[in-house]
Amino acid sequence: MIKKIGSIFLLGSMLCAYAQEKTTDIESIEFQGKFISTPYKNANQNITVITKEDIAHSPAKSIDEVLQQVPGMDIRRRGANGVQSDIGFRGSSFEQVLLLLNGIRMNDSQTGHNSMNIPVDMDDVERIEIIKGPAARRFGQNAYAGVINIITKTTPGKRVKISADGGDFETYGFGFNAQLGNEKFSNALQANSASSQGYMYNTDYEIRNVFYQSKLNIKNGDLKLQAGFSEKKFGANGFYASKSATEQYEETQASIVSLAHQQTFGALKLSSNVYWRRGQDMYLYDRNKPDVYRNMHIGNNVGGEVNSSYQWGWEPRVLEWS
């Protein structure tokens, strides 16, 4: 009995020691808000930051699976591997959550069903910043329940990564990632594709993403360019109509191009961006009989922002022109 107790005590000590090894210095993280980069410790909102280390240690295979692990988030997933997901906060609708990619609005103008059509692979995410609670005054429409800002990696240097994986139901995935640049000017290009016959009838899918971004450091600031394209084709068995609607089919596309500028002049910070997002959604009620019902929707969002902030002491004062 004494030996058993000693073993249990030793095992508990080892687990405690291991648990203490994984630490995240949130004091050094700056939350990329709409107006100003705010140190995490100074933010007055309920903020969660998912780091690249958290993502690497997670068993998740897609961004929506990563978000599903955050307390208070309601992820309504349809299909596997990020085919389609609705995101809500604490009982909100999926139209009341603002989704940003490097600070650029990604919400679909037609429906929140397609807002997660992001042309970025999970391995290329630097961190995910999440605001829980109303933030419409600061971020505008769609931010009634919360904000999700996905920040991608912009590491200087030269690197090429090629990956492949496979599984049951003729599931496969391929990925390509290349980075080229230095501290002054950096570029990153990633492309990936995934396909499967589905785990049940008419749940097959094909997903293709391409994403490019560059960053040019200028005096006391930077210029950022990003462009991406996402395409999904999938069987939508029971996605929308009744369970008897087993032949539904959908094809979606999302394109994004944006240019962002940020510069600091002492206590004055200026930021601006222009962007274009195109969304396309083609739906068939019966993929074997396209003439029964077919719907095609195309939406274009064009926008821009100019923001400035001036900080006295520790308290930021924000001015906005639109």
Automatic annotation (TrEMBL):
Residues 1-19 form the signal peptide. It is a multi-pass membrane protein. GO terms for molecular function: siderophore uptake transmembrane transporter activity. It comes from the Bacteria. Pfam families: Plug. Belongs to the TonB-dependent receptor family. Keywords: Cell outer membrane, Membrane, Signal, Transmembrane, Transmembrane beta strand, Transport. One of its GO terms (biological process) is siderophore transmembrane transport. InterPro entries: Plug_dom, Plug_dom_sf, TonB-dep_rcpt-like. One of its GO terms (cellular component) is cell outer membrane. Residues 42-147 form the TonB-dependent receptor plug domain. This is Outer membrane cobalamin translocator. It is found in: Cell outer membrane.
